[in-house]
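Budget justification aside, the reviewers requested a transparent look at the raw inputs and outputs of the sequence design task funded under Objective 1. We therefore reproduce one unedited record. The lines immediately below are the structure tokens for a 237-residue chain.
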């Protein structure tokens, strides 16, 4: 895919994941090309890719429509992510962490400890957590030295909330969010302990359970209150 097509593809993915493009919204080539300042060909290629990923569906022979994503769709993708990341953790533990990987994970743990020690979190704090959480998971996946896991995660991660790169925050209950993310951080400590002690089965079980923390947000995302209630944190451009 050309560079303009890739830029359009990434932008549209983010707009769908954040809810800026809502389920059922119609997308046409010409208006989208004008919006991004590109020709119609990059937009056409981006639309086709998003259709293959399950984010867009053809609409009436002309253009596309943002696919309606149900709670069960998200839950299924999250479960698959848990299996894949659990496998990555087991293989990383069995092979042993490199010094660089261990140091990177330790930095994430220290940053998280500092974030949660005050007993509450703000939305800005969770932006920081989002970054360290992505790094923590990435190091584990890379530590498996298994490209098939990386490829499978990339295919699975396009649905909203299915990917570790999209963090859903319930702005109506930040006290609960503190408890949820602090617990997730404690799971990071536990999986790190399993990794350094080369306890593959334990590392796998913790990572699979870790993914399940997302499942409640599948229901919120598909509800009518999602727009007002949820904030979706995505990677910086």
């Amino acid at each position: 895919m050309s560079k303009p097509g890739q830029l359009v593809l990434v932008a549209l993915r983010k707009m769908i994941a954040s809810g800026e493009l809502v389920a059922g919204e119609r997308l046409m080539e010409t208006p989208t090309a004008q919006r991004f300042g590109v020709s119609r060909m990059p937009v056409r290629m981006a639309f086709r890719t998003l259709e293959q990923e399950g984010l867009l569906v053809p609409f009436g022979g002309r253009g596309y429509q943002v696919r309606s994503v149900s709670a069960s769709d998200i839950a299924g993708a999250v479960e698959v992510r848990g299996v894949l990341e659990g496998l990555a953790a087991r293989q990383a533990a069995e092979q042993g962490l490199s010094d660089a990987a261990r140091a990177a994970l330790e930095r994430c743990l220290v940053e998280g400890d500092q974030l949660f020690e005050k007993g509450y979190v703000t939305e800005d704090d969770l932006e920081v957590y989002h970054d360290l959480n992505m790094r923590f998971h990435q190091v584990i996946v890379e530590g498996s030295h298994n490209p098939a896991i990386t490829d499978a995660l990339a295919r699975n991660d396009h649905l909203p909330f299915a990917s570790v790169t999209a963090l859903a925050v319930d702005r109506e209950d930040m006290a609960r969010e503190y408890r949820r993310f602090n617990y997730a951080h404690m799971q990071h400590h536990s999986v790190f302990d399993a990794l350094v002690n080369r306890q593959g089965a334990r590392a796998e079980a913790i990572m699979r359970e870790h993914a399940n923390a997302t499942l409640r947000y599948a229901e919120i995302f598909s509800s009518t209150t999602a727009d007002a209630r949820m904030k979706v944190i995505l990677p910086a451009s």
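Residues 71-233 form a domain with the Four Helix Bundle (Hemerythrin (Met), subunit A) fold (CATH 1.20.120.530). The first strand starts at residue 26 and ends at 27. Computational costs for records of this kind are itemized in the attached budget.
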